[in-house]
Amino acid sequence: MCIKKTTTELFCPKCMEDTAYEITYFEDKISNLLCLKCGKEYCLLDSEDIYFEYIKRLHNRIKTKPKRIREEMKDDLNNSASSMPIRIIKKPFRMLEEYRKIKKL
Ligand SMILES: [Zn+2]
Fold this sequence. Notes:
With about 100 residues, the chain is an alpha+beta fold. The chain has one domain. About 55% of the residues lie in helices and about 30% in strands. Helix 1 packs antiparallel against helix 2 (about 75-105). It is elongated, with a radius of gyration of 19 Å. Zinc ion binds next to loops.
């Protein structure tokens, strides 16, 4: 899951001038636009869209995980095998962190 934020200058209809806007991307889609001057926020994706997209991508990640692990182990048997237990333990925490990030959108 990928959430990115960037800042750019856009015309704000409330301020009636070009102002700095924070743009939040969820995966490859713009989810929010926030005027940093007046605080006006435009939500382009609602929470249902975000959850639907997250669940769809999570399903795909789970479905392809065994194949990705096999490929990773073929590429580098020593490193993958030694780091695997730590990665398995951390996975639920990483997923919880992802969930918290999308809940904030
Ligand atoms: Zn504004």
